[in-house]
Amino acid sequence: MGMIDVRNFAKSFDGVQVHKKVSFTVNKGECLGIVGGSGVGKSVVLRSLIGLEKPDSGEIYIEGEEISKYSEEQLIPIRTKVAYVFQNGALFDSMSVYENLAYPLREHTKMSESEIAKRIHEQLSEFGLAEAESKEPAQLSGGMQKRVGLARSIIIGPEVILYDEPTAGLDPYNSLKIQEMILRLKAKGSTSIFVSHDMPSVFAVCDRIALLLDGEIKAVGRPDELREDPDGLLQKFVSGEAG
Ligand SMILES: Nc1ncnc2c1ncn2[C@@H]1O[C@H](COP(=O)(O)OP(=O)(O)OP(=O)(O)O)[C@@H](O)[C@H]1O
Ligand SMILES: [Mg+2]
């Protein structure tokens, strides 16, 4: 088994079956890209991995532990282990960047205030965000907000990170900065899923890429395999011939 195993995940909304039987594995330390057209159900799969949605049928294993029917209380340790990086950063508007990053540390750890300060300074400088520390989200550009949002999502040191379109709408500079953050976290051993329409970023950070189409994972391959297989489905998706 991998760090994450999804088996025959099925889910309908309002009588429409979005997921028929989605199955995939993410190995420890690996970054799996999930690509697919708008509305195929990528975000629902990610949210299900931290129990924000429940499949109608199928199983979700996190390190071999089947979590799909877990209660809110049972999900608490799962949500410490698995971080979901929200698309918009989901920062608290009325708090400074420092306070935004301190929040999860105060909630989920027993760190002292001086340990928290040290951790935040390290994290911000590692990600090139030191100058943002005392600012409020409204004073930052959208790209900076997304980078701070990512920093906040991972500050408690999750083993698994779920990225939902982290580079969407970003200029090349901020997109590259996000890629660097992800590669840095990967070098430290994080396991991740990267959902994105931004194919250059997908190719830059993912070890394998899976195509979600018609309610199933239709193809999985390494980036180099995709490049060598011009007739493959994934290649067609990348070139815009298959949605
Ligand atoms: N809470 C919900 N209630 C009703 N329908 C929902 C809900 N969540 C998702 N859906 C539907 O499920 C489908 C898949 O949604 P999802 O957000 O997972 O797509 P996606 O692949 O992430 O798309 P995008 O690339 O645009 O982000 C969509 O048709 C959406 O309308
Ligand atoms: Mg989505």
Characteristics of this structure?
243 residues; single chain; alpha/beta; Rossmann fold; 10 strands; six-stranded mixed beta sheet; globular; four-stranded antiparallel beta sheet; binds adenosine-5'-triphosphate; binds magnesium ion
Short recap of the structure:
The protein is of the alpha/beta class and 243 residues long.
Order of helices and strands: EEEHEEHEHHHEHEHEEHH
Return Rg in Å. 18 Å
Uncertain spans: none
Shape: globular
Main sheet summary:
6 strands, mixed
CATH architecture: 3-Layer(aba) Sandwich
Instruction: Spell out which ligands are present.
Output: adenosine-5'-triphosphate, magnesium ion
Look up the CATH topology: Rossmann fold
The largest beta-sheet arranges its strands as 6-7-8-3-9-10
CATH 4th-level superfamily: P-loop containing nucleotide triphosphate hydrolases
Assess the beta-strand content as a share of residues: 15-25%
User: Termini separation (Å)?
Assistant: 30 Å
Arithmetic mean pLDDT: 92
Domains (count) = 1
Helical content band = 25-40%
The CATH class is identified as Alpha Beta
Helix tally equals 9
Q: How many DSSP-defined strands?
A: 10
